[in-house]
Prior knowledge:
Elements: H1 7-59, E1 72-75, E2 81-90, E3 97-106, E4 110-115, E5 122-126, E6 130-136, E7 140-146, E8 151-157
Antiparallel strand pairs: 1-2, 2-3, 3-4, 4-5, 6-7, 7-8
Amino acid sequence: MLRAFSLLEILVALLVGASLMSVAGSLFGHVLDYRQHADATRSTIAHDMALQLLAADIDNSLAGLPTSPAIAITQLPQGGHRIALKKNTYAQGIVNIALRDIVWTLEPDKITRSVTGGTDPVIVATGTFRSDITPIQSVAYHLRLDTGADVKSVILWRKGGRL
């Protein structure tokens, strides 16, 4: 004898299925929110690290010494800035530490760092941002990165010497 499902059993099954679909959709939405938050955090950390490394490069540069040229900061035609300096450094593939040119490029979509005699420029941070460099008398610069959602700022100066 065949037995069919009652209307009540079908309604309970539909209710359980709908509840599961609602919970799954909510979880999926939360996963997307967490991913966006993680991406934003990763971008913020990358920009912070780039600014700290740039500030350390300038602090440890040989700019301002009598035999060394000053740090060169130029505006790029497509927007952004190029910062060139000299520093004693080790470059991958080169055996010794020597005086090398370090070039930072702050483009509207990425920040790169290159070492003469080293490999291709390293992309330090990515994302859309606008850089602004303002001189502070003759001893320092104020660098500001505006990502639209966040503003990062650092003072670029060399301890014990002028830029």
